[in-house]
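Course exercise 7: structure representation. Students receive a sequence record and must write out the corresponding structure in token form. The form below is the worked example handed out in class, using Ferritin-like domain-containing protein (187 residues). Read each field label carefully; the graders check that inputs and outputs are placed in the correct fields and that the protein name is recorded exactly as given.

STUDENT ID: A-19
EXERCISE PROTEIN: Ferritin-like domain-containing protein
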Amino acid sequence: MAEFLTDIETIRERARLEIEKGPITDAYGADLERVLQVLNEALATEIVCTLRYKRHYYTASGLYSEPVAAEFLEHAAEEQQHADKLAQRIAQLGGEPDFDPDTLTKRSHAGYDASTDLVEMIKEDLVAERVAVAAYTEIAQWLGDGDPTTRRVFEELLAQEEEHADDLRGLLERIPRNTTNEPSDRP
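STUDENT ANSWER:
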């Protein structure tokens, strides 16, 4: 059986000394305040992405809008799940998830978009996904072994953001470039 670097009695003693810190122990190797700030920025990003996808879902129109709108709705639900995971991790670490609507877009990595053209919607969503991929890759690398749990959260989000980017790229490839937004039968 492998030996601990610290004897178990010392670990137990330390665990009792600062019980109010919950999961944050002496073994936590990251800058907690900065981690909470980064998590809240990512939370803002996911909320803005949820709102952007929802807007695009409800305003998508034209000949190719039905499958695209369905993808927007699916992505909106997944971005909301990302926001929930981030808020949960912030709370686990003793922080406060920041849902302040007045500062969401300022804290978000991705921008909000009010495009009305279907192709522009897809492009703007793809740009936002690429921003998330780049940011979450850097965050996961920055966290390293200092906070492996938060790193894994970002790695999970990263995998899904890459999938979203691939989905959107595929949609762009399927829509002819000379289309205009024509009315759709979709409600």
